Amino acid sequence: MPASEDTGTARARRGFVKAAMEAPYLERDEEHALAVRWREDQDQAALHRLTQAHMRLVISIAARFRHFGLPMSDLIQEGHVGLLEAAARFEPERLVRFSTYATWWIRASIQDYILRNWSIVRGGTSSSQKALFFNLRRLRARLSKGNEQLPASEIHRQIAEAIGVSKNDVAVMDSRLSAPDTSLNAPIMESDGTSADRVEFLADDTPLPDERVGIAIDTERRHAWLKGALKVLNEREMRIVRERRLSEDGATLEALGEKLGISKERVRQIENRALAKLKDALIADQGADASFT
């Protein structure tokens, strides 16, 4: 019994499973009639009988995924959601048994639940990534049987070819499945017997307080230099520099040429002249080389 499932919950689940297993099977004609009543008349009693008769299918499919460590009651509940989805989409006129159609929806619902809850780190949601997640252990066990000396890289390569994913994807998924999630608040013992939370050992790449102050002061100083240098430009030069160099998107030469009624080559010439004037103004004011490229 999973650790997260208490005695009362386990007892209720066993009672539910017993009732599901005792539910009578449906003959093909009766199943078809119930499906028609539900689809055409939204008959809730027909839906109840249809789903009740197939709960043993839900339990059977859920049992295949119990080794993922999630409560069996939750797997059954998610499988029931898939069963109801199948009932809502089932087309009885296709003359396919409901159990055949419902199997895919039940399994898909359970697998989606496992992918959402197995780890706090979300895995891939593509069909190939799902296939890798649910088949990796089985394929690895099969390849390792009788080949204990087979290196992990070769096992990963063969699994990648079988499922249709990259070898790196297999290695990453294998690593995830081999180790549990670790809380950042989990303690780490030091050599002197003291402990600290794991989060305290994470590297912080942000600048130190004195560095942030220095960056802010330098940025403010450069803005003041630039503001003063821009006064040497005429109106058209100022517009081109602002739209080409000082805006986030940066206008193209062609777009600016259309706005100003000149060619893009003329815009380029004016821009180069304006940048040279700015450079000269900054050097004359600050005594240092500056460029805007």
For the report, how would you describe the main beta sheet?
Answer: 2 strands, antiparallel
**Total count of helical runs of at least 4 residues:** 13
Structural class: mainly alpha
What string, H for helix and E for strand, traces the elements in order? Answer: HHHHHHHHHEEHHHH
Give a brief outline of the structure:
With 293 residues, the chain is mainly α.
What does this structure look like?
This protein is mostly helical and 293 residues long. It folds into three domains: 1-118, Four Helix Bundle (Hemerythrin (Met), subunit A); 124-181; 209-286, Arc Repressor Mutant, subunit A. The protein is 65% helix and 2% strand. It contains 13 helices and two strands. The protein has helices spanning 7-22, 28-41, 44-52, 55-63, 72-89, 98-117, 127-144, 152-163, 167-178, 209-229, 235-245, 253-260, 264-286, and strands at 187-189, 195-197. The protein has a two-stranded antiparallel ribbon. A hairpin with a 5-residue loop joins strand 1 and strand 2.
Could you outline the blueprint of secondary structure elements for this entry?
Layout: H1 7-22, H2 28-41, H3 44-52, H4 55-63, H5 72-89, H6 98-117, H7 127-144, H8 152-163, H9 167-178, E1 187-189, E2 195-197, H10 209-229, H11 235-245, H12 253-260, H13 264-286
Antiparallel strand pairs: 1-2
